[in-house]
Amino acid sequence: MQMNTAAALLRAESLRKSFGSQQVLKDISFDLRKGETLSLLGPSGSGKSTCLRCLNFLEKPDGGAVFLEDKRIGQVPARRGGLRLMTDTELAPQRAEMAMVFQLFYLWPHLSVRDNVALGPIKSGGLSRAEAHALADEMLDKVHLRHKADEYPERLSGGQQQRVAIARALAQRPKVILFDEPTSALDPELVGEVLGVIKELAEEGRSMILVTHEIRFAREVADRVIFMDGGHIVEQGPAAEVIDRPQMPRTQAFLHQVGGAASPRG
Predict the structure, then answer these.
(1) Which 3 state secondary structure label does DSSP give 169?
(2) How far apart are CA 173 and CA 98, in angstroms?
């Protein structure tokens, strides 16, 4: 895919996060351009998912800042100067602009597929039931599940449930979609149908950040990739360039191990 040269839509600046004595993110900075797909790659425990969750303050960073269209996320001026963290209620509108698709599906088992997708637009978007159902059907079309609108989650495969979760995220009409290893909980034969939907969204020009272990998929779909290890950004750049011709020894070793690139250079 071609590099998008538009101005940054989302910026992360010097994000830091620790859990107890373990520092998980160490001054992470990057941006996402409008219409761009960015993939975060790296070994388990490298900080990818924590980084993603810090962007919409599902995890509160210990330091640094996040900006969406130059508006600070998760923090507001305090009365006595400086900044304070927003409450979850204050954060809700901002989080709606950065929809998140998790590893697990988190669908309401007692609601139909259509109602699962429509619930957010009704509760937080102020849509009528009829409007929300029309929107839900439109989003289910995008994930090729309109014919399952009246089914319940238990009657769907894991891949279908994850596609419903993607439709639910789309129904928020977000500015950015965050995918946290969306295929990791799926049986191998179901991975392709979810990746196919994500590829279609990328081709539409959606702004997306994807944490994944699917290296070949990241090369095909992402505009840029960031390789993380030990809480640091080790290497970043155009997807094909980083995956096919990694410059850093740690990136070379990782991609060789997972079969995503040629053998490390001597």
Answers:
(1) helix
(2) 9
